[in-house]
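Interim report to the steering committee. The following record documents the input for RNA polymerase sigma-70 factor, ECF subfamily (188 residues).
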Amino acid sequence: MTEVDFITKINNGDLKAFEDVFKSNYANLVLFANKFLNDVNVSEEIVSESLTFLWEKRETLAFTSSVTGYLYKMVQNRSLNYLKHQKIENDYVGYLIRNKLIDEVPEHPTDPYLEKEMAQQIKIAIDTLPEKCRQVFVMSRFEYLKNREIAERLNISQKTVERQITIALDKLKKSLEYILGAVLVCFL
């Protein structure tokens, strides 16, 4: 069967063709993702999500190369996005500690569910900030830009930048108080 025939079968919902893709690529894709992530569980999750995406969006996907090539590129992108997201979460927790918004994170092994919940709540808290406020906060805390640089990029005054950061910090502190309290209770 040619690659074009194979792609056509998947696009048309041929479950056998998809099973062949799954069986012949799953293990190698997990190993590939693990080279980036160094975490087999997360690698398996990313590969599973990628294969699920392939199946669910099969009718609308346009393959420029092979299905396997497409999957490797998708797994690579998702792995890199995961790492980028982890860095943002770690930077934010570090920011909270540096600015004494929370005490040091306990060194006890944590419940993975609790970690995931905390990371999700931090992301939600940042996402619920007003757009300009969120934009200024992210530029300040995650892109490490100075207030002057942010003001120049956004064509606003430095006072506005300072005010937006203060608003963001106040809102985040209020939003995260309950989740941080729950985390600390778990370690007492």
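The chain has a mean pLDDT of 80. The committee is asked to note this result when reviewing the revised timeline.
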